[in-house]
Write a structure and sequence with these properties.
The chain is of the alpha/beta class. The protein contains 13 helices and 17 strands. It is globular, with a radius of gyration of 22 Å. Residues 323-367 form the MannoseP isomerase/GMP-like beta-helix domain.
């Protein structure tokens, strides 16, 4: 058996204005007809490996209704709600608490729960070959279940990307005759994590051949991850003890109240820092699968089809886009007509009545614009209702 946990609570502020706190990037669709959001695609990928009944989503309370609507194949209780964002370590810990109790309620034995491989997956990434990626996940699950190792996925870099995290691997592939389930994976010992290097370091990483993009995917037996939380993040894990008690008593409202109290006391932390970087035996599976975390408008352009001049266009609701003497750019519009004349390497984004224009090479700086827009919206006086 396999269990999938899809994390769907991120904000995606670097894709403003199409991604907002009320409707973050996991609800965006790369196809113009909006038939499938990134979140829906992520759930489909997870269910292809674990099955719909064993796929869970975790998100913030404010997004829960939209998340459930995007994944109608999942039962309401398969969507786990955080009171507010606290990064990935608390998010996964809370999800573990709920998943274990749900499996117990289904009649799973403690041994079954302990040995079952759990996949922790992002909801807002783009995968070029879905079938190949699903096969990679399945093989990594089998490997982790057999060895009880923690396995993370790394993608072979194709450029010196400064917007991604990296995993340094050692130089010796691990291929054991005994680990039959692992034999088909390109496994290495993980040496360290490096978060978003500058351009010079990213070029060094690419030239070394020892660094992989961090795909944000973790696979390990449930029992192993539970033990690592208790070993490396005991205060965080202890904060959820009252929640566990309430769930076992069948007191859903009490569990919700105790979760809110726990979140008021815990500090934000990523699972990479809190757990994964602490492991001496962490392994990374290297892959060249087509992947991007869609963390900037430059990454969106890379994921979209481009014309002969290198322009990518995403136009919804019948919007017209005209590019005259322009190259290597991006237009994203949810309805407004857009015309560009004589500009290269530019992003023009029109969404929700907001417009962003920037060079693609500065796409990583969009978060600052999003924060400024949010501050302005917070202080802008609301128009008075028409009294006539």
């Amino acid at each position: 058996m396999r269990i999938a946990l899809v994390m769907a609570g991120g904000g995606g502020s670097r894709l403003w204005p199409a991604s907002t706190p009320e409707r973050p990037k996991q609800f965006m669709a790369l196809r113009d007809d909006r038939r499938q959001s990134l979140l829906a695609a992520a759930v489909d990928r997870a269910a292809a490996v674990a099955g719909a009944d064993c796929t869970f989503l975790v998100t913030t309370a404010g997004l829960a209704a939209a998340v459930r609507a995007a994944a109608p194949q999942l039962a309401p209780e398969q969507v786990i709600e955080e009171p507010c964002p606290r990064s990935t370590a608390p998010c996964v810990a809370l999800s573990l608490v709920h998943i274990v109790e749900r499996l117990r309620a289904r009649g799973w034995s403690e041994r079954q729960i302990d040995e079952t491989a759990l996949m922790v997956l992002p909801s807002d990434h783009h995968i070029g070959d879905e079938a190949r990626f699903a096969d990679l996940l399945a093989r990594a699950c089998d490997c982790a279940a057999e060895t009880r190792d923690v396995v993370v996925l790394g993608v072979t870099p194709t450029r010196p990307e400064t917007g991604y995290g990296y995993i340094e691997r050692d130089g010796v592939p691990q291929s054991s005759q005994c680990d039959t389930a692992c034999a088909s994976l390109s496994l290495y010992s993980a040496v360290r994590f490096v978060e978003k290097p500058n351009l010079a370091r990213a070029r060094e990483f690419l030239a070394s051949g020892r660094f992989l993009w961090n795909a944000g995917v973790c696979i390990t037996p449930i029992g192993r991850l539970l033990a690592e939380y208790q070993r490396h993040a005991p205060a965080l894990w202890q904060a959820f003890a009252p929640v566990i008690s309430a769930l076992r008593e069948g007191e859903a409202e009490l569990a919700r109240a105790r979760t809110a109290a726990a979140y008021a006391s815990i500090q934000p932390a990523s699972i990479d820092v809190a757990i994964l970087e602490q492991l001496a035996d962490l392994r990374v599976a290297a892959s060249d699968v087509a992947w991007t975390d869609l963390g900037s408008w430059a990454a969106i352009r890379e994921a979209l089809p481009r014309d002969a001049d290198g322009f990518a266009v995403h136009a919804e609701n019948g919007a017209a886009v005209h590019v005259v003497d322009g190259h290597d750019g991006l237009v994203w519009t949810d309805g407004a007509d857009v015309a560009i004349v004589g500009l290269d390497g530019i992003a023009v984004i029109s969404s929700g009545g907001r417009i962003l224009v920037c060079p693609l090479e500065r796409a990583q700086e969009v978060r600052a614009a999003a924060e400024a827009a949010a501050r302005h919206a917070a202080v802008r006086p609301r128009p008075k209702p028409d009294e006539t």
